[in-house]
Design a protein that fits this description.
This is Sporulation initiation inhibitor protein soj. InterPro entries: AAA_dom, DNA_Partitioning_ATPase, P-loop_NTPase. By secondary structure, the protein is of the alpha/beta class. It has helices at 15-28, 43-47, 59-63, 69-72, 91-95, 105-112, 115-118, 132-140, 154-171, 191-205, 227-231, 239-242, 247-261; strands spanning 2-6, 33-37, 74-77, 80-83, 121-125, 143-148, 177-186, 217-224. Helix 1 crosses helix 13 and helix 6 packs across helix 8 (132-140). Bound molecules: adenosine-5'-triphosphate and magnesium ion. Magnesium ion binds at residues 15-16, 39, 43, 125.
Length: 277
């Protein structure tokens, strides 16, 4: 079982597109997958065909301890479940602000319902911020996958993101590692994309071995810009249901294969209760 947060505090870099289509690729490979939509925008839920209307059970209710993850979970395709979100989730940032142990609410809910044990992959679509929702994701997973759009400021944002994972690793979840960077919205053949990718490679290879990103892999698959990927959400379909032969489907299928093939330490431990600060 692997737990992966798809994270980047920068907006619009393809976190949701990657969460949904990577999850769908893994599900099509026969893995049982649960997507947790941790963004109050609810885009991952929409993308997978769910409209979490007010009053329906969502991940907000899980945070508020008003329902179990099983009550909120919906099966959307073979092997693929979603715990949806809607704008209600925005309240969590405020409601938990003075709660001791607020970083561990999601982890404890997942551990309690043994969700991690029932899925091969749990994938969390994070919001574009480093607030309490993202910190909850980082405390509930062992892996971070960063979608990165290769442009001039991309690496600047990345250092803040890496600092946050280092802080979480030191204080809250020692099992957390950045395992991969996926280059998304990739413009093949441009100098800028190649330069940013090379800078990233140099940064990773020159990092200290004890940083949580020391072993991060830049996925070979480049997720190319493809209009079908932008159209699929409005049909509530993954790219494989919407246009299964388009370049976007091929790219996400390949990324799925790379994620499946990654050397993941067998029996990698779950974030444990004892990790609590
Ligand atoms: N490879 C791609 N080709 C074309 N369009 C893409 C691609 N990847 C993502 N998009 C589009 O770019 C926009 C941003 O993508 P997405 O919503 O996945 O980013 P995000 O990081 O989740 O954004 P936010 O920070 O708001 O959560 C969306 O309209 C999406 O459909
Ligand atoms: Mg998103």
């Amino acid at each position: 079982m692997r737990t992966i947060a798809i994270m980047n505090q920068k907006g619009g870099v393809a976190k949701t597109t990657t969460s949904v289509n990577l999850a769908a690729a893994l599900a099509r490979s026969g893995k049982s997958v649960c997507v947790i939509d941790l963004d109050p925008q609810g885009h991952a839920s929409f993308h997978l065909g769910l409209d979490a209307a007010p009053g329906s059970r969502t991940v907000y209710d899980v945070f508020a301890e008003q329902c179990t993850v099983d009550d909120a979970r919906q099966l959307v395709a073979e092997n693929l479940s979603v715990i949806p979100s809607n704008i209600d989730l925005a309240a969590v940032e405020v409601e938990l602000s003075n709660t001791p142990g607020r970083e561990f609410v999601l982890r404890d809910a997942l551990n309690h319902w043994k969700l991690q044990e029932r899925f091969d992959y749990v994938i969390m679509d994070c919001p574009p911020s480093l607030g309490v929702l993202t910190i909850n994701a980082l405390c509930a997973v062992t892996e971070v996958l960063i979608p990165l759009q290769p442009h001039f400021f991309a690496l600047q944002g990345l250092s803040k993101l890496f600092e946050t994972t280092a802080l979480v690793t030191r204080r809250l979840n020692r099992d957390l590692r950045v395992t991969g960077v996926a280059l998304c919205l990739y413009e093949s053949g441009t100098r800028l994309a190649a330069d940013v990718t090379e800078d990233l490679r140099l940064f990773l290879t020159s990092s200290d071995a004890d940083t949580p990103w020391a072993k991060a892999k830049i996925f070979k698959t480049r997720i190319r810009r493809n209009i079908k990927l932008a159209e699929a959400p409005s049909f509530g379909q993954s790219i494989f249901d919407y246009a299964k032969t388009c370049p976007g489907a091929r790219d996400y299928a390949e990324l799925g294969d790379e994620v499946l093939a990654m050397a993941q330490a067998a029996g990698s431990p779950l974030p444990l209760q004892q990790n609590a600060a």
